[in-house]
């Protein structure tokens, strides 16, 4: 079966199985620019994981939570203390739209689409081109769970995966 070239990205339910429609992949972001637009709770949770992956995190937000400000002050990330502008995605390999404005998040996704850059949209996951899984690490193993728009279920499943890895003594 072929997907029409003019189909909406990600929109072919006839090809989907019983699980999440997401194709799982591990991104190797070390040394690569990752743009995060927004400085609230979602960014505060995700930026440290991006930093730990080696990504060069650039944050754009007029205001940020203290934890993000500290990362910027110590040079761990760069922070542009302003609103998002078209063109901010220059050089980005991966983008997170995590503002409290649906219009801004939509603009970030639109620019990402035009540049063929994967983008997580925090307020409307189904409108982005990537989803962030619930992840955890134990015993040298990273596990991830992606569901169909049910982050609480994904966290429960992640926790069960982690328990299995711990129980096997890996």
Q: Can you tell me about this structure?
A:
It is a single chain. With 170 residues, the chain is of the alpha/beta class. The chain has two domains: 30-127, Rossmann fold; 134-167. Helices cover 30% and strands 18% of the residues. The chain has four helices and seven strands. It has helices at residues 41-52, 66-73, 102-115, 151-167; strands spanning 33-37, 56-60, 78-80, 94-97, 118-121, 134-138, 141-145. The strands form two sheets. Strands 3-2-1-4-5 form a five-stranded parallel beta sheet, sandwiched between helices. Strand 4 (94-97), helix 3 and strand 5 (118-121) form a beta-alpha-beta unit. Mean pLDDT is 89; it is low at 1-7.
Q: Compute the gyration radius: what is it?
A: 17 Å
Strand count, sense and barrel status of the largest sheet are:
5 strands, parallel
Shape: globular
- Mean pLDDT across the residues is 89
Give the total of beta strands: 7
Q: Could you estimate the helical fraction of the residues in percent?
A: 25-40%
CATH H level, superfamily name of the largest domain = NAD(P)-binding Rossmann-like Domain
Low-confidence parts lasting 5 or more residues at pLDDT below 50? Answer: 1-7
Q: Topology as H/E string?
A: EHEHEEHEEEH
Strand share of the residues?
A: 15-25%
Instruction: Give the CATH architecture of the largest domain.
Output: 3-Layer(aba) Sandwich
How many separate domains? 2
Computed structural class: alpha/beta
N-end to C-end Cα span: 41 Å
CATH-defined topology of the largest domain: Rossmann fold
Number of helices: 4
Strand order of the largest sheet: 3-2-1-4-5
By CATH reckoning, the class of the largest domain would read Alpha Beta
């Amino acid at each position: 079966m072929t997907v029409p070239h003019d189909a909406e990205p990600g929109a072919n339910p006839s090809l989907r199985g019983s699980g999440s429609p997401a194709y799982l992949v591990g991104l190797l972001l070390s040394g690569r620019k990752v743009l995060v637009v927004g400085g609230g709770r979602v960014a505060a949770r995700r930026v440290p994981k991006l930093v730990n992956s080696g990504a060069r995190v650039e944050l754009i937000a007029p205001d940020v939570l203290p934890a993000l400000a500290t990362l910027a002050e110590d040079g761990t990330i760069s922070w542009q203390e302003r609103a998002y502008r078209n063109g901010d995605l220059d050089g980005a390999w991966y983008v997170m739209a995590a503002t409290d404005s649906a219009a801004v998040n939509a603009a970030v996704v639109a620019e990402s689409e035009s540049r063929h850059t994967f983008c997580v949209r925090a307020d409307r996951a189904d409108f982005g081109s990537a989803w962030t899984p619930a992840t955890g690490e134990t015993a040298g193993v990273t596990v991830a769970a992606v569901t169909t728009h049910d982050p609480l279920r994904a966290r429960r499943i992640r926790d069960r995966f982690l328990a299995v890895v711990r129980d096997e003594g890996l």
